[in-house]
């Protein structure tokens, strides 16, 4: 059966209406789902954050000292020999005072030429009444400087003054320290962190009661600090120590390990 032109037009109109209705319904459904998802995603939990501080004081059990050996000579070999002589005496002194070989470390060894500017007398012109002509010359190597830098960890802190006093008589230079510290700080850091957490929790309990709220689960935690802060005793010497001024013993003071935490709770 052949479809007339008028029937074809009506059929196209029906298909067009159905297609438009389907597209509108599809668009509305997408918009609804997007809005619902957005509302769920933007939902924010009510939270409250508390900070806590903890610290632990401890007497240092090690001391670090530093010194340099520097000598000049006509040749590199001669300069290095002079440095080696003082180094040998220094190591003997350290070991005599109970310093372990593993606690003595060379951190730098170097040598450099020493220059001197010398004029060429053959090209020098006599000065006139008004000026002196510039003289020609060049830099000439006149010797070499050899240097060695050494760090020492002293485990018997009561002997650090005596050790530094001994080094000061052997010709070392730039003798500095002592820097008192704690050899194993992990346990103290954990204790300081625990104190900080307890401080934050105590604040949370008190403030929650004052505000009339109930705290839920912890949603986040962060920590800062957890580093040693030296508390120097009066009279402690930190820079150079000479053989006349070094005391028999140096006060160690205390080091403070600190921790600062932030704890965020969900409010029920």
TrEMBL record:
The keyword Membrane applies. This is 26 kDa periplasmic immunogenic protein. The keyword Repressor does not apply. It holds the Pfam family SIMPL. One of its GO terms (biological process) is DNA damage response. The chain crosses the membrane at residues 12-32. It comes from Candidatus Nomurabacteria bacterium CG1_02_31_12. InterPro entries: 26kDa_periplasmic_antigen (IPR052022), SIMPL/DUF541 (IPR007497). Keywords: Membrane, Transmembrane, Transmembrane helix.
């Amino acid at each position: 059966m052949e479809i007339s032109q008028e029937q074809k037009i009506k059929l196209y109109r029906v298909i067009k209406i159905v297609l438009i209705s389907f597209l509108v319904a599809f668009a509305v459904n997408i918009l609804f789902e997007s809005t619902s998802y957005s509302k769920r995603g933007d939902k924010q939990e009510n939270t409250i954050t508390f900070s806590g501080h903890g610290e632990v004081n401890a007497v240092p059990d090690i001391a670090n000292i530093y010194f340099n050996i520097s000598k000049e000579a006509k040749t590199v070999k001669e300069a290095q020999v002079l440095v080696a002589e003082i180094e040998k005496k220094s190591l003997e002194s350290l070991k005599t005072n109970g310093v372990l070989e593993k606690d003595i470390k060379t951190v730098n060894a170097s040598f450099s030429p020493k220059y001197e500017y010398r004029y060429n007398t053959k090209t020098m012109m006599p000065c006139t009444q008004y000026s002196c002509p510039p003289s020609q010359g060049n830099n000439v190597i006149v010797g070499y400087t050899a240097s060695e830098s050494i760090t020492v960890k002293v485990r018997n802190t009561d002997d650090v003054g005596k050790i530094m006093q001994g080094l000061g008589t052997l010709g070392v230079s730039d003798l500095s320290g002592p820097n008192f510290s704690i050899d194993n700080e992990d346990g103290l850091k954990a204790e300081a962190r625990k104190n900080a957490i307890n401080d934050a929790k105590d604040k949370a309990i008190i403030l929650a009661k004052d505000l009339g709220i109930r705290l839920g689960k912890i949603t986040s935690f962060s920590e800062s600090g957890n580093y040693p802060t030296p508390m120097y005793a009066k009279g402690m010497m930190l820079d150079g120590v000479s053989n006349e001024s070094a005391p028999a013993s140096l006060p160690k003071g205390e080091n403070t390990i600190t921790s600062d935490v932030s704890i965020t709770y969900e409010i029920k």
